[in-house]
């Protein structure tokens, strides 16, 4: 026997869970700490969070309808960045890119959608790329595009550049050392 439920309530819960999914990435990215260093006001932080949820959910809907384009992602990041002159493109891109990557993998999207994704920038992915602005707080749109173009130079998906960072995070969670740590501290 099928358990009766209210479809509207279930839809509301699904939307709430998607918002919590995005909120967890926002916490993990430590954007509030970064914003404080940049002098972003409390009011702007709250506006940023609201817009982050709205824009990311809009991008999720494009993933679901298989209409997501790279331009949609970059336009959403630019919209977030333009909320305040103290917000860098680097700060604005992080949560959107991480949440989109995870959402696409969970949903099992086609390669065509994965082609559209950008690699979330972080200290590891930006290291050694020879691009002027190598700190998240200073990264602007031109730098961001240069990074993404460099990640694409090897003829593969841009998001694959994030593998090293993701592996490091999983290893840290499990209390395991990374390959880089093993190389630096051979037993």
Describe this structure in words.
This protein is mostly helical and 187 residues long. It has one domain (14-184). The chain is 67% helix and 0% strand. It contains ten helices and no strands. The protein has helices at residues 7-29, 31-38, 42-64, 70-81, 89-107, 111-116, 123-126, 141-152, 163-174, 179-184. α1 (7-29) crosses α3, α1 (7-29) packs across α5 and α3 packs antiparallel against α4. The radius of gyration is 18 Å and the shape is globular. The model is unreliable at 181-187 (pLDDT under 50).
Q: Would you spell out the secondary-structure blueprint of this structure?
A:
Layout: H1 7-29, H2 31-38, H3 42-64, H4 70-81, H5 89-107, H6 111-116, H7 123-126, H8 141-152, H9 163-174, H10 179-184
Helix pairs in contact: 1-3, 1-5, 3-4, 3-5, 4-5
Helix content: 55-70%
Gap between N and C termini: 60 Å
Strand content: under 5%
What can be said about the biggest beta sheet?
none
Outline of this structure?
This protein has ten helices and no strands. The chain has 187 residues and is an all-alpha fold. α1 (7-29) crosses α3 (42-64) and α4 (70-81) packs antiparallel against α5 (89-107).
